[in-house]
Each structure stands twice: as C-alpha cells, then as structure tokens.
Amino acid sequence: MAVGESQLGSDTESAVDEGDVEARVGWRYTLAQIKQDTTARWGLYVVAFVITVATYAIVDSNLSLLTFGRLPDYAFAQALPIFDHPTRIPPPGEGTQHMPPYFPLAEQSWNPLPAGGTIEHPLGTDHTGRDYFTRIVYGTQVSVFVGIVSTFIGLSIGTIIGAVAGYYGGKTDDILMRVVEMIYSIPPLILIIVFTVFVGGTSIWYAVIGVGITFVPIFARIIRSRVLSIREMDYIEAARASGVKDRNIIMRHVVPNSFAPVLVYATLQIGVTILVVAGLSFLGYGAQPPTPDWGQMLNISHGYMHSNLWLSIWPGLAIMITIMGFNLLGDGLQDALDPRIDD
Amino acid sequence: MKLLKYTIYRLLQAIPVLIGISVITFLLANLGPGDPVSLMLQGQEHSEELVRAIEQRYGLDRPLHERYITYMSGLLEGDLGQSIYYQRPVSALILDRLGPTLLLVLSAYAFALVTAIPLGVVAANRRNEPTDHASRVAALFGVSTPSFWIGIVLILIFAVKLGWLPSSGLYYPWRPPSSYPGINGHLELYYETARHLLLPMIALGTLQMATIMRVERTQMIESLQGEYVKLARAYGVPERTILRKHAFQVAQLPIITIVGANLSTAIGGAVLTETVFNINGMGQLFIEAIQQNDYQLVMGITMMLGFLFVVGVIITDISYAYVDPRVTYGERD
C-alpha cells in the first residue's frame, strides 16, 4: 500500500487477510522474496547505504575517510549530535576558515560559497561558513534515528492497542478504536506541533514522541485487522482451551503471527516519519540549530535562495533519496508478501 | 431509505469523534507544563495581581472541567473564543483565512486527480511496459519528496531562474478586482490567481497525485483481471470499451476513499506549502498562533481542521455508498 494511502477506510485492510497467506509470511520466505524482487533489492541497497553513512558518522566523527583529512580537527563535533554536541572552538586566527558542523554561530554570516567551489568544501559552506557536505552527512544520523525511533514508538503502542482491541473485541474494541480514530482525525503535523509546543517544548525529542503517537492509529488498525482473523485460528483455540493466559496468547501467538504485514507498513512508515520530521524542522519545530538536520538546513537556506540556490538543493536530495530507499524496500516487501499480485 | 439511514448513522458516528478531538485539543492546550498565563507573559515583568487579573479575564482560575464545559457550550453556538494576540473572535479570524487554504487544497486535489487517473489507467493497461515503469518511478519520486522541497525547487526554477511565475502571495478571486492595484476586470484577476496558484498547487498536489496514481494502477490491474472483463472480452467487446466502461468504473471506487483519508496529509502539507509560498491561509494563521502562544486560537484552528477532516471523510464515505451498490450499510468489512 502506498505511503499516503492511510487506513481510514477499512476496505484497504483486507489485502493480506486471506487464510492461505500463512505459509507465505514466514521470515525465511520474506528474505527469499527480497532477494528475488528487484524493487526490494534496490530499496535494501539504498537503506543499507544510508544506515552505513549514519553509523559511519558516529564511529568516525571526524569523517576522516570522507574528507581525506582536508578539514582541520576542530571542524568536527565529537559525539552523536542528538545526544550531545560539544564543539571544538577554532584556534584564534583560524576560526574564519572552517567552522565546525555544529558551531552555533548565526551572526557571522557571509555569502556562502557556491557548490563545488573548493576541494575543501565540495558542496560549499552555509551562511556561517560551516562545511555543507559534512553537515549533510551528519544529517543522515538525525533522519535515520528519528525515522526508526518514531516508528518504533508508534509500532509498540499501536501493536498493544490493536492486539488488545482485536483479541477482546466488543466494548473494549469499540472504545479503543474510537480513541484511535480521534487521534487520527487531527492532521498529524498540526497535532505534533501542538504537542511539542504546549506539552514538551520545541526539541527533537518531543517531535520524535509526537510523531510516534500520531502513527499509533495506523499500526493499531493493521494489527487489529490481522488479529481478528488470527483469533479464530485453531491453535489460538487450543491455547485458550489449555488454560494459557490471555496476555501470553496475545504476546506469544497473536502478535508474532500478525507481524509480517506490519513490517511492510513499518518500513514505509519510516519514510513517512522522515518526511514529517523534515517538515517539522523546516517550520522550526523539529531539530533545533545547531543540529545538522536536513529540514532545518532547508529552513535556513530558504533565506539564501537568490545568492546560492544549491544550498536548497542538497538537503532536499538527501531527504528524497533516504525516503525513497525505505519506500522501495517497503513496496518490495509488500509485493513479496501480497499473494494477490502475481507477476 | 437505506442510504438515508446510512447517512444519519455516519453523521451520528462523527459526534463522539468530534467531541474526542475537542477533548484532546483542550487537554493539550491546557494541561501542558507551560500554562497559558506564563506563555502570554513570556519574558515580561509581572506581578501576582496581573497574573490573577489575566486568569480571571480568560476564566483560567476555574477548574479544568468547568472551563471545558464553557468552551464546549460556546462551541455549540459557533463561538470559538477570543484570540489573545489579535483580540478578535477566533471564528472571524478562521473565516478570514479559510478561503486561501480551501482554494489551495481543492486545486491541489484537482491537479492530482486530473493527472493521476489517466496515468494510472495507462500504466495498468500497459503493465510492465516502459510507460508503466516510467509512471511508477514518477509515483515513487512523488511519495518520497517533501512537498515543501518541491515548492522550493519550483520557485528556484520558475521564479528565480526563469522568472516566469511569482514565488509568493496569492490573489483572491472572490475579492473585487479593484482591491488590487493594476488589475482591471475579473478576467485579469483570475489570470493572476492562476499564475500565483500554479506552483503551490503542484507542490501540494504531487504527493496526492503519486498516491492516487498508485491506487488507480493497482485497482485497474485488478479490475482488468475480473470475471466480468473476461466475459466482456469473450463476447467480443472492443478492448477500448472494456477499458473505458467496464474496468474503469469499478476501479474508481477506492479512489474516493483515498481522497478522503488523505485529507489530513493534505491539510498538513498546506501548512508547509503556505509557509514556502507565503500564502496567508489557515496554515500561516496556525503558525502565527503557535508563535504567539495564542492557545485559544490554536485550539480553534485545530478543532476546525479536525472538523474539516471528519466532514471530508463522511462526505467521501457517503458518496462511496451512493456510487457503489455493493456497499453494505453500517458495518463494512
């Protein structure tokens, strides 16, 4: 199912509901399908690349391999920016040449270098003279982290709500799904901004939690519709008859067996998350400066459109490629798992 | 009669959802650690009396549930409260800004539907041919690219580099032409509106286009494999008639649902698009309200947008039921 194709209409949920799917949802089968499916394979390559870049920027925070030591040491931060970003202050006299990627220096703005201007700054520098290329690389960390963590939050809460609602049915189901529908009815971006500003305070953490919460309805609906069909299976009946507790049935049998289609949505949802958080940061309610976040970089470069248009191009391209990777992977997984489409 | 019943059923179903939205919005705006008074007084010297006075003026000294009931009873009369920053009724402010946003969202949908449906049909008809692959790649780009960045790129190309189209603002076609300097007559005004609307419309509509196209393609492929299509073929009905009549009509039903469900993405996208193109709509009003900590206004806008979404979904659901004779009313599975 496509990304924006949200699940309000219950008729979109039946795609993977047929009973004969059981044999086709195993993990080994999924992996085999990914290997065969071109779309999924390319998605996997892109996602692997993006995650490698993100991890690499943590392991080698000076990016020495990528920059061939072309930038002096003080031009880099030391730790994962989301947790902490200590800044190395440039030695006196040299500070104007290379600004650290996290250097919180908004006043000292000059005309940014054009892209490809120098060997030292292949993508130029931003308005404060920070190397754009290293900021784009560090931005990968923020996006991947935010995408995965938010999706995980939405997935965990959504799974619990969906499983409980689907398993117990009746009143519990009615109430839970109504609440879910209420959350779903407020446009996500609006809900997240209200949440971050009024409850949390603008910070990437509250944005992550807020995005996670807005995704609860989507996962709850998918899990619920799967659980509804699994609930009737013989092995659940058997477990219930032999006196296994409800909680154990849900966690050991129901949830694991409904998980394969959820994985597809989770993959697609990571892409959506990155999209939403980029929008949030663009508006100024996601990652805060000096964190090198792509959306926030676009926010700043918006003011420099006429002097250097490339500053507005690179972060957008980075966002697009990353999201495309997750979408390709998700689409590929879906094709692999959906028995209805036969090529 | 059944349809009427279904319509009433759906409307009744919306009531708890709307109440829920109001509760969520109210709690978010009032329960947060940043209480409205200190948000209002941010950075200013203030005495205890001033705080007291403000609390009394906005009724903040009363318990939460009382405030909620007051708010809700006002809401039923169409009163969304008073904006703290603008010192005007929230409903009047919203009404002022609703036009541009509706114009933007509706034109984006029009753009999406007009482009996506033919593309989807062609792609399904030429499945696994180059046309199909090309349109699938286009759809992939569409769902993977942030709308605001599409807007930025469009501005860079068509406004900054080529200078063909304006990069910001919007001319409202419902205002008299004389209110704009240099505009003579309605025709010229509509032309200016179209010129200003073109780029934001594409920026906001691309995601919708891509999503609708994907669904259209899948649905068409499925309906082309249907028994009735096989039967029509066996009877020797020309392939073009099959495509246009038999397969096409059935495949359009899910599109209705998608349009409704995607409204919330479109509304969120409108906030971003309005920011990029400097359009004074609801999105901009929302951002202003947030920046000014005008919690009354924020609540009003959030309620309004939630309401728009719920109404949109109900309209699509009901029209779906009117169009599709197979829909069972009440519980659909």
UniProtKB/TrEMBL annotation, chain A:
InterPro entries: BP-dependent_transpt_permease, MetI-like, MetI-like_sf. CDD domains: TM_PBP2. It comes from the Archaea. Its main location: membrane. The chain crosses the membrane at residues 42-59, 142-168, 175-198, 204-223, 262-287, 307-330. It is a multi-pass membrane protein. Belongs to the binding-protein-dependent transport system permease family. GO terms for cellular component: plasma membrane. It holds the Pfam family BPD_transp_1. GO terms for biological process: transmembrane transport. It is found in: Cell membrane. Keywords: Cell membrane, Membrane, Transmembrane, Transmembrane helix, Transport. Gene3D superfamilies: MetI-like. This is ABC transporter permease. Residues 140-330 form the ABC transmembrane type-1 domain.
Automatic annotation (TrEMBL), chain B:
The keyword Membrane applies. CDD domains: TM_PBP2. It comes from Natrinema salsiterrestre. It is found in: Cell membrane. Coiled coil: none annotated. GO terms for biological process: transmembrane transport. Keywords: Cell membrane, Membrane, Transmembrane, Transmembrane helix, Transport. It comes from the Archaea. This is ABC transporter permease. Residues 98-320 form the ABC transmembrane type-1 domain. Pfam families: BPD_transp_1, BPD_transp_1_N. The chain crosses the membrane at residues 12-31, 102-125, 137-160, 197-215, 253-277, 297-323.
